[in-house]
Amino acid sequence: MNRLKGKTAVVTGATSGIGLRSAELFAEQGVNLILTGRREERLKEIKLDFESRFDISVQTAAFDIRNRKACESFVEGISVPVDILLNNAGLAKGTDPVDQADFEDWETMIDTNVKGLLYMTRLLSPQMKERGAGHIINVGSTAGHEAYSGGVVYCGTKHAVKAITEATKKDLHGTNVRVSMVSPGLVETEFSEVRFDGDKQKADAVYEGIDPLTAQDIAEIILFVANRPPHVNIMDTVIYPVAQSSATMVHRDENE
């Protein structure tokens, strides 16, 4: 059953990976889209593609989610009620231990994964609360459930997303606004290339010998979460590829 047709969704980090695939699945269901990301030309291409294939409207806004003023300007420019906020924008930078890590990498992760998510939630939740309807879906990570060496700040930010999701649900208790999180394990997207500053060899090695999750896999779960009946709120889903059992337990097939 399609419960989403005609609704409007804001998707952050929509130019690639999980954000792009989620936006496309929403579009297939007749959801009007407001897409954000830093790559303006890519957003224009996505808008043309989606509007040519689906009977929906697509608005785009190119800005950095870390910039609070840009977030405020973006939300002020939205003229329709937002039914779904998919806080997807996020990234990891580096795998250095705490005593060697780069401060700028830390700031980038904290400003994107935590503060950017909070800005968008703070700015869009009031209209949802006022209407007594809406759905905030945060893209977390299994790193928000289990910390690992080399991920001190990335894991910290995703633990924060888990706490923010739970506290947001409690803050909006009694309003019928739903709050959810989706927590993927190893997903093969641009994620690892970003983490290793474009080093494709290092990025590819993360997925060697396994059949990792794809952006499509996670987008399908996000769609499922969003499409539940209004009285159903899925707080979190933890998703691993079969080859993964924890952050550090990954079975690799040497023949692949």
UniProtKB/TrEMBL annotation:
Keywords of the record: Oxidoreductase
Record SUPFAM superfamilies: NAD(P)-binding Rossmann-fold domains (SSF51735)
Domain of life: Bacteria
InterPro entries documented for this protein: NAD(P)-bd_dom_sf, SDR_fam
Gene3D superfamilies referenced in this protein's UniProt entry, alphabetically: NAD(P)-binding Rossmann-like Domain
Coiled coil: none
GO molecular function, one term: oxidoreductase activity, acting on the CH-OH group of donors, NAD or NADP as acceptor
Family: Belongs to the short-chain dehydrogenases/reductases (SDR) family.
Protein name as it appears in the record: NADP-dependent 3-hydroxy acid dehydrogenase YdfG
Native species: Gracilimonas mengyeensis
